[in-house]
Write a structure and sequence with these properties.
10 helices; 18% strand
């Protein structure tokens, strides 16, 4: 924060695609995934995330839900350089040179309404064609190659088939190990075996850290299955943030709620039923079950 920056008092009383890393004072910030410039360091252990009204509503509701211990504490809205930000706890404050992993949860990362809108107003996208061929030059059809563009619906559904999102209900988005480089090269990490190797590398085969993560994830699953918020929301594009350091301290939190939307009453979700367009199921608990199972398989046989 520069000296001439003006901070306004939060408007409401009281991620992380950005993974901030405290090596030493002052803080050094590293963003592993997400849109550049979406996050800033706040004062007193706070993190500022570019304002999203939907995420604000979710965080406010979560502060009153059983899931509160599993999400960053929310402290309202502040303004910086005429831009509004949601202010929340920096989850890394109490870790020393932590290792960090972002896992995108669920069997899809697009809302049903996004598919509907894209169908109603089909617009071939050159930028998405370029993203597609960068990953797989053979993926576009002959027509898409001739247009040098793909529809958003086509791109979104194709993107999910590359990773473990469709096969396991979660995917690794990014990893930042202690003193290491940020790694986001997980676009084709799809099979159970590939995911297992990536997770094993993340925990460095440290049994204490592995057990700590499993304990936290099982506690989270238990609370999710009783949460009023979770039962009545479609949770899409949300991540689990994993953090550990050399002392063996671990933490796991739910983050990123920009695409998490309330369901029309009286609809509720079990988050395990396979998604069929119209049922709004997101596969979050199916993914969490698989994640817990894979991490459990890394424990030594006793």
């Amino acid at each position: 924060m520069t000296k001439n920056t003006t901070w306004k008092k939060p408007k409401t009383p009281g991620n992380l695609h950005a993974l901030s890393v405290q090596h030493k004072k002052p803080q050094q910030w590293v963003q592993v995934v997400g849109h550049a410039g979406s996050f800033h360091a706040g004062d007193c252990g706070m993190l500022l995330k570019r304002f999203c009204e939907g995420e604000q509503r979710c965080l406010q509701r979560l502060m009153e839900d059983a899931l509160r211990p599993f999400v960053p504490a929310y402290h309202g809205v502040v303004q910086r350089a005429e831009q509004d930000y949601n202010m929340m706890d920096d989850l890394l404050t109490h870790f020393n040179s932590p290792s960090i992993m972002d896992c995108k949860m669920g069997s899809r990362t697009y809302l049903e309404e996004e598919l509907l809108k894209a169908r109603e107003r089909p617009q071939p996208r050159k930028d998405m064609f370029e993203k597609m061929v960068a990953v797989d030059p053979e993926a576009p059809t002959a027509q898409e190659r001739a247009q040098q563009a793909v529809l958003k619906t086509r791109y979104m559904q194709w993107r999910e088939t590359l990773s473990s999102t469709t096969t396991l209900g979660f995917r690794i988005e990014g990893v930042k190990k202690t003193e290491g480089m940020c790694n986001t090269n997980f676009k084709r990490t799809k099979s159970r075996e590939q995911v297992m190797e990536a997770l094993k590398d993340f925990v460095d085969c440290n049994i204490q850290i592995l057990r700590g993560y499993l304990k936290r994830l099982k506690e989270l699953r238990m609370v999710l299955e009783t949460s009023d918020f979770f039962r009545t929301y479609e949770v899409v594009g949300s991540s689990l943030l994993f953090v550990h350091d050399g002392t063996g301290k671990v933490g796991v939190w739910m983050i990123d709620f920009g695409k998490t939307v309330p369901l029309p009453p009286p609809l509720t979700l079990d988050h395990r039923t396979p998604w069929v367009e119209g049922n709004r199921e997101d596969g979050y608990l199916w993914g969490l079950d698989n994640l817990i199972d894979i991490l459990s398989s890394l424990l030594p046989v006793t």
